[in-house]
Design goal:
Strand content: 5-15%
Low-confidence stretches: none
Structural class: alpha/beta
Largest sheet: 7 strands, mixed
Shape: globular
Mean pLDDT: 94
Bound molecules: S-adenosylmethionine
Number of strands: 7
Radius of gyration: 20 Å
């Protein structure tokens, strides 16, 4: 991948390292390897023999991660996989319980910046939005084929878009004339549809629509729920799961899953899992970090320990 554009700056690194208790001999899963920012730091803080199992489903990110993690040799293993499938991967690869799992959700700056991936409403690109481009429907597939009620639901549920019905209706009309294939076409449609006086000057009016389709295309909330439910047996007792989320839908899911498990929920069929929450309130970036890395502003970090 070309790396001339802005690199991805990892968020809340010190906080993650501390909560994970990084130390020699320890083994961690980075479930959202991205450009390897957190993984590098974990590897440095677990020298000389700590290990990282890196999971990533985006091929371009994997290529970059392989490059930056190469100096760590066999201490870093990388798999192209959905983190929701971690239990299956552990079984297949014979990987034993680990000391910690990190999930840094959402997109990397590199994905956002590459217009041909279709994540960004700035510039023009195909309406794709798949992080894993091997399979699945693109955003264009959904925009051009979902029944209007379902479009409205996607926009409402995943974008918390108050103009969901209107935007769904406008999509219906537009696609009756010609298919909506580009990020620009979708952005312009949203601009035309939300009444001007309700358009924020600070947040782009297309933000919620793009977030909604991205979450739906990648089944982001389902994947998160799956790992929060089934990931605990992959941790040693005392092992920790850290999750960084970037919007309220994800944070709510993490908070509720941790609370349910702290009260004594199930970690899957036949297993009683209990966890202890180590972050009663989510950890937010310092003012300094928020200033230096604006993307970090919405980040919330929660951590729980398997007991
Ligand atoms: C915010 S970035 C992570 C950045 C990384 N922590 C770093 O410092 O470079 C999120 C990454 O997770 C990946 N990702 C998101 N959901 C995933 C899933 N279900 N399985 C595997 N990778 C996923 C995305 O493709 C993206 O590269």
């Amino acid at each position: 991948m070309e790396m001339n554009g802005p690199r991805h700056i990892p968020v809340l690194v010190e906080e993650v390292i501390t909560l994970l208790g990084c130390a020699p001999h320890r083994v961690y899963v980075d479930g959202t390897l991205g450009a390897g920012g957190h993984a590098i730091e974990i590897l440095k803080r677990t020298e000389p023999d700590g290990r990282v199992i890196g999971i990533e489903w985006d091929e371009e990110a994997i290529i970059e991660a392989r490059k930056v993690l190469a100096p760590f040799g066999e201490r870093a293993r990388i798999f192209r996989e959905n983190f929701a499938n971690l239990p299956g991967l552990f079984r297949e690869e014979g990987i034993g319980p680990v000391d910690g799992i990190l999930l840094d959700l959402g997109l990397s700056s590199i994905q956002i910046e590459r217009q041909e991936r279709g994540f960004s409403f700035r510039g023009e690109g195909p309406l794709d939005m798949r992080m894993d481009q091997r399979t699945g429907e693109t955003a264009a597939d959904l925009v051009n084929s979902l029944p209007l009620e379902e479009l409205e639901q996607v926009l409402w549920k995943y974008g918390e878009e108050r103009w969901a019905r209107r935007i769904a209706g406008a999509i219906g009309e537009e696609r009756g004339r010609s298919q909506i294939e580009t990020t620009e076409a979708l952005r312009k449609l949203v601009y035309r549809t939300i009444p001007k006086r309700f358009q924020s000057r600070t947040i782009d009016p297309a933000t919620r629509t793009f977030q909604a389709f991205r979450i739906r295309v990648n089944h982001e909330l389902e994947n998160l729920e799956q790992i929060l439910e089934g990931g605990w047996p992959l941790l040693k007792r005392g092992g920790r799961m850290c999750v960084i989320s970037f919007h309220s839908l994800e944070d709510r899911i993490v908070k509720q899953a941790f609370r349910r498990l702290e009260r004594g929920g199930s970690g899957g069929p036949g297993q009683q899992e209990r966890v202890q929450i180590l972050t009663p309130k989510p950890i937010r970036p310092s003012e300094e970090e928020a200033r230096e890395n604006p993307r970090s502003r919405s980040a919330k970090l929660r951590c729980a320990e398997r007991v």
